[in-house]
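User: My advisor, Dr. K., asked me to get a structural model of this assembly before our group meeting. I'm new to this, so sorry if the format is off. These are the inputs:
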Amino acid sequence: MAIQQPFPRTIRAEVKFTTSSSISVPDRELAPLTSSDPNITGLLAALFWSNGKNMDGRWLVVDASDPLVLRRSSLTPDYLRLTTVSQPGLAPLRRRIDDLWPAFLFAYLDTAKKGHLALSKELQNRHADGQLQEPLPTHEVLAIDHQAAMSEVVSHCGNSGSGRIFQRLFAYLLGLAGYRTVTVNTIGVPDVVASDPTQENEHVEFQLTVDQSRRLVRHCRAAGDTELASRLLSQDRRLA
Amino acid sequence: MKPDEKWRLEAISIRSFRGVAGEQSLDFGGRSALLYGNNGVGKSTIALALQWTLFGKFPSGVLPNIGFKDFLAPVGGTKGASSGEVSFGRAGQTFSIRRDEAAGTFTVKIGSKALEDEEAEKQRETVLGIDMETFVRTVLLHQSRVRGLMLDEVKDRNHAIDMLLGVEAAQDLHNVLKVKPFLDAAIEWRGSAKSAQENHRAQGDLLKRQYEHAVSQARDSGFQNKDLNWTALSAHYEKLVEAVHSLANRHEVPAAKLSAPVSPTEAHAQRFTVKVSRELNQIRSKAQSQVRLVQEKSRVQRMQGLLGEWDQKVNDRDEAQKLVSGAEAGLPSSGSPEKLLEDATTKIKKQEELLANLGLTYKLLTDARAALAVQRDAKCPVCGSVDVSHLDRDLESRIGSLSSGELVEGQKLLGTLKQYGNELKIKLDQLAQLKQGRVLVQNQLTRLSEQIAKLLEVHVISESKVRQRLLEGTKNSTAVCEGLEKSVESLASEIEEIATKATNLEGSLLTVILKREEISRHEKDGEKILHEHAGSEKKAESMEGLGSRIERIRIALLEAKDHLASDRLKRARPRSLELYERLVRHPKFSSFDITTKPRAKKVDYTFEVSVEGNPSTAREAKLVLSDGQITATAVGIFVGLAESAAHGLDMLFIDDPTQNLDQGAKEAMAKLMVEIAGRKQIVISTHDEEFVSYLREYGFDKKASVFHIESWNGNPKIVSGSKSP
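Assistant: The format is fine. Below is the predicted structure of the whole assembly, which you can bring to the meeting.
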């Protein structure tokens, strides 16, 4: 068992969504993300939805203070993915985001389609009540589901509207990942500030055999903890 | 380091090198110097020889497409082994450096200590504190580096500034380092899985299309996104089971044990659908509303039948009554029919008796007449009289009267009486029959009334109420039927709904779920493919990791270049600005600046002039300054850079500083050179006589050695100045 690095204490994030093949992040947007305070991490979170490429629909989260990001006027998905390779410190947060994102989008898709105001309200209220996870599906969200959900948001809200929607979803995805305080700046920068991560959400890694894992799933179900059972199931497809 | 602690060039000796076919030595004695002569007399050879002897190489760009040895070879003689020897001096110390191409040796000597090769290299750097890059940047100004600033292409001008600032190596290294080969390598490593992944992707596309079709059908059946999973389908099945049980309960049909499928398989779903269908049929047929409807309809039919029968019977009975009444009306009105018949019978009997008496009388009379005829003479048997004539008359009269009147009339009357009697009897018989018929009908009516009473569940019904009761009963039952029919219709509707739902669950939603299962397996297969090619994937990731590191190095190089260039420009700026004003003397743009402009893959420069440093007046230097002015600016920058650099040499070597300069600029340049020569060793190489005149005018030759190279015949022909022995 190994306790992974905790999430950054405070995140300042610039959130970008695009249907084109690259994003541009001006210095004026990146500058407010950086800080000399080691507890503050500036992130660039990019979501691409273009031509069904590999990284489409996945959040690409990179340290915005990295020269690899700062020096580029245009960032492609491949480049950002390459950047993540050399930023292992953010890997636990990335994994958590990757794990939660498809189910999170699936859960809030209908609200998202009502517009960002309705979505903001619901996310804000649920986050305040600690109920962000409640609408999360207990069934497996397939890649095809996620693609459909992404497509639906984009076609329903348009490119610009989708940007606002995904910005809010990312903000509260951090909330779901364990950040107790989440602020979305509609106009200013940074787009999102998340702080005060719960200790409970620090990842703990176990090494279990498939058989042991299956038994654990059964025990969870028997105890009525379907959420944890689903979570365990989603960790490895062999358990399904 | 104080000036007297720095080294100055004492002498240089060259052999078989570029413009020197034989051997040439120049003795500077640590003083400034002027090398002047026409083009092509070997002035630049001296600068190159100094550089080669010190470092054994040249900066990039000096040897474009030329082999090193070819470059070193004498221009005007046969190829020979090049060699050079340079000596520096300071405060009585001498530091000698010798490079011999033929022997492949590099030697330094300081005092009595001589070192070779690597040790010599180290010693050179330790003593002089300078490497080739710094030497080129801060000691040796070649015209080629100035010329670059006048080029039209921005890229070329930037490169020239790079060279001027000595940062071209960072850019060159950046250009050499490529991320793409690593990414290509990653792609190649992943190529092992490519075929399998392409097949997998094609299957995935097909599955996706099938899934989308299934989803479309499911949506047509009213299912939503949230329904398209096994959990939701399972919940739908549970609801369906509940609906069936609820329906059975509401319709009072004992519910069979029905349970939802436990896993999303076609077989389970089909079995479930069959069970639901069977159960629904049971409910349909055994539902109380249905049973009661059948009963109630039967009751209505029965009542309607009875009503018809009742009406018929009543009619029959009334008809019978009419017949009886008619028959009764046909009878004499006096007395009862029985009495009439009795009277008639009595009359007939009396008449028959009367007739019989009359017959006897007649017979008696006829017998009397016959007897009278036989015993005419005899006395009257009655009266005893002998004369009976009167008897004859009387007899005859009486017989005649009887036979022609009384008897006939009597018989007629009897006939009449008998006829009347018979008719009366017939009528009475008929009446009796009619009455009997009427009784029969009445009895039937009574029995029918009893049946109806029983049907209507009453004890007894008066005849007059039967019809009304039947009508009311029928009406009530019909109303009940209508209610039941609605209930049955509702039941049928619910059954239809549940059956449709079951069909849809199996036909639409299950299809989606099964397709999802298939896609899920397919996605897992995709991971298996990756797993099977994990080794290649790891290699690919490793390549990407290297690529990322290379990219980081590239960026670091650019940052370093940016910082270095900015720093050097910053340190050189005050002196360069001063020299710009002195050398360029621009009537409008009194200031200039070069600043770095970092880009993604390079560092650009802005080289601008302005009015007293006002940014709003800034213009690109290339568009405003003449070539001469740019040359003068470049020399100023070089001097600024040279004077702000830290190393162990107290000298500058400037090649052709007046190219493109006008007279005034040459004069200013000469003043500057003289000024520099006052505190530093400066070696100037030029072909410009006017410039040489200015140098002399301002006393340069008093501070410096002057070498006039008159001509070249394979070797420079130096006609004045000091030559080493």
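One thing worth pointing out at the meeting: Residues 463-532 of chain B form the longest helix (70 residues).

User: Perfect, thanks a lot.
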